From TrEMBL:
Residue segments, region Disordered: 210-234
Alphabetic keyword roster: Membrane, Signal, Transmembrane, Transmembrane helix
Protein name: Polysaccharide chain length determinant N-terminal domain-containing protein
Residues spanning the signal sequence: 1-32
Transmembrane segments: 185-206
Domain of life: Bacteria
Lineage: Bacteria, Bacillati, Actinomycetota, Actinomycetes, Micrococcales
Length: 234
């Protein structure tokens, strides 16, 4: 089907185009007025005993410390694996999440291959209000610290010899994320393109169906035949 034929179908079935464009405009306005979201990516680092996060050999790349951090993350997640995305550094709100938490061991790999090179637990939190994100952040940090302490206490490890869990202070910041003017314009253009595509498809389908009904010949009425019995008068 050529572009001219598609355009002709859209002109003949103009009401479909108007309906789809109106629905797209309403959806775009609702999404635009939805506002932004609050987010944070808090990091809890695990180090060797009697070291700090700034020490050159603090154990953040030690396989044993990384394994322990992974165990803590698994306990906090109740044994459920965290969601994986194609890009390891993609923000949690970039996946369309507007309220939720993601607890995972720092992964420099991808959706298909995991690479754990640091003993950092990342707490990604997305919420509609600052207070909710702050509350979740506080609860998750307390939970990570408590699990790390409980796991080592269950093995009767002395306090001086335990792996330390340190919260990176700069990662405690909560930010507000909202779309830019350019992003809003790009989203509106994408919505318009989708609406035109859908309206073109709908107009062609309806036009074909109605044209087929008009061109189908009507079935002539069936005339009942009379059976004349032998010997009966005509």
């Amino acid at each position: 089907m050529t572009f001219r034929e598609i355009l002709s179908a859209m002109l003949r079935r103009w009401y479909i185009t108007i309906l789809v464009l109106t629905a797209a405009a309403v959806a775009t306005a609702v999404l635009a007025n939805d506002g932004g979201t609050y987010t944070t990516k808090t990091v809890v680092s695990f180090t060797r005993p009697a070291t700090s996060s700034l020490s050159p050999y603090n154990g953040t790349t030690d396989p044993s410390v990384i394994a322990f951090a992974g165990t803590v993350a698994q306990v906090v997640n109740d044994g459920r694996p965290p969601a994986r995305y194609s890009e390891s550094d993609a923000p949690y709100y970039g996946a369309g999440v507007r309220q939720g938490v993601l607890v995972e061991l720092a992964n420099s790999g991808s959706q298909w291959v995991s690479t754990f090179g640091r003993s950092d637990i990342e707490l990604q939190i997305v919420g509609r209000s600052y207070d909710w994100v702050e509350s979740q952040q506080r609860d998750l940090v307390d939970q990570v610290l408590a699990v790390a302490d409980a796991e080592q206490a269950s093995l009767a490890i002395p306090s001086a010899d335990r792996i330390r869990a340190i919260v990176a202070p700069l990662t405690m910041r909560i930010e507000y994320v909202s779309p830019s003017r350019r992003g809003q314009a790009a989203a509106a253009a994408a919505m318009l393109a989708v609406a035109l595509t859908v309206s073109a498809w709908g107009s062609v389908m309806v036009d074909r169906r109605l044209s087929r009904k008009r061109t189908t010949p009507a079935t002539p009425p069936r005339i009942p035949t009379r059976h004349i019995l032998e010997g009966s008068p005509t």
